[in-house]
Amino acid sequence: MAYPVDRRGFLRAAGAGAAALGLGGALAACSDAAGEPGRRASPVTLTWWDYFTLDNFRPGMNRLIRQIESGVRNVRIERRTFPFADLERQITLGAISGDLPDIAIVDNVSMNSLGGSGLLADLTDRVEEWGQADQYYRGPWNGCQVGGKTLGIPNNSNCLALYCNTRMLQSAGVAPPTTWDELASAAERLTRGDRFGLALSAIRTEEGVFQFLPFLWQAGGDLDTFATHGATALSFLDDLVAKGSLSEQCVGWTQQDANTRFVNQRAALQINGPWQIPTLRKARFDWNVVALPRDKEAATCLGGENWVVMAGSEHVDKAWEVLRFTQRPSVLVPYLESFGNLPARRDLADRGPWASDPALRLFLSQLPLARPRQYGPHYADASQAVAEAEQAVLTGSASPSAAARTAATKIDKALGGR
User: Fold this and answer.
1) Cα dist. 377→167, 294, 415 in Å?
2) pLDDT of residue 40
3) pTM score, two decimals?
4) Which of 194, 233, 201, 394 is nearest to 303 (CA)?
C-alpha cells in the first residue's frame, strides 16, 4: 500500500526538525571525478552510511568493503557510521542539508518512514532485470516493498524464538512449550525462588514492541484490531506477571537484560534472537531453542537490516552494482558469519554455519513466518502506543482491556493515513 508524502511538506518538516535540534550546515559531499575523453574514468566514490559502530563488527565490514572495491570496477567506498538511534534522523536531516549518502544500511523498520519520503531510489526495474527476487524469504523481501515499488534489498535477517534451559526443563518434567497454554504452565512450574520461568523484554522502546508484536499476531490480530486482540495478548502477559512466572521488572529490560537473566540461570526460558547465540555458547549449561509458542496462529517478528540507495545519488547505477555484488554467496556468506546474522535468501540455507548449527537452523526455519513491521510513515506513533499499553498493564496501572482501547485509539489515528 502506498504512503503518499508531499515532498515539499516533508522537507519543511525535516527543516523544522533540523532547526529545533540546532543542526545546520552541510557536510562535504563526494562527487564523481570523471575522466577526460580517451582516458580511463577515475574511480567513483560512493558514500555509505550505517550504524554498525561496535568493534566486533569492524573486521567483517572492512573485509566486505575491500571485496567490493576489488570486485566492482572503478568504485571506492567512503563509509560513515552513526549510533543506531541517530542514523534515520541523519538521513532525514540530509534532505535539508543536501548531505546524503549514496548507499545506506538501515533497520528494516525504518522503511516505514523512509519508504514514503521520496528519499529512496526505486530499484524495481533493476531488480526485475536481475531476476533474483524469488530467492528471498517472503518476510524480508516484503519489508523492502512500499507502494508497489522495491526500495531496497535485504542485508540480513533475524527473528525471535524461545530459548530453553535443558536441565531445568528436564528436572521439572517440562517439555518445550508449543502453545500459549503450555508456555503459561511451563513458566509457572519452572518458577522457583529467585528464578523466573520466563524472561523477555517489555521496555518502553521499539525493542519491547518487537517482542510484543508476535503475541498480538499469534492471537490472530494486528495493529488495526488492537482493542480486541491487543487485549488478549496483554492479558496473557499480565497473567504471567500475576502468577510470578514473569518478573514485573521486564518493563525495564532490554533484550540483552533478558539474556543476562537466562545466562545467569535466573530464568528457565527466554524470548530472544540469534544475536545472543555467541554469548550463550560460553554458558556453563545446556540449552536449546524452539519456535515461539502459538495461540491461534504461529508468528514471529522480523528483524534485520536492508540495503537502500538514495534517490538523489548521482551514481544510482554504480550503487546498484555494489548492492548486487554483496549478494554473491562468496561475499554474503562470510559477511553474515562475521556479524552472526542469518541470510534473508532461501538459496543460502544450506551454506554457512546455519547449515549445520541446530540453533541457527531453528531461527532460519522461522523466517518464512517472520512478519515485517511495515505499517507506513507513522508507525513510530503506533509503536509508542503499544509500548505504553504494555507498560501500563504490566505495572498494574491499567487493565488489559482499558489499555488496549486507549492504545487502539492512538494506533488508529497514527495509521489512518496508510
Assistant:
1) 45, 29, 8
2) 61
3) 0.84
4) 201
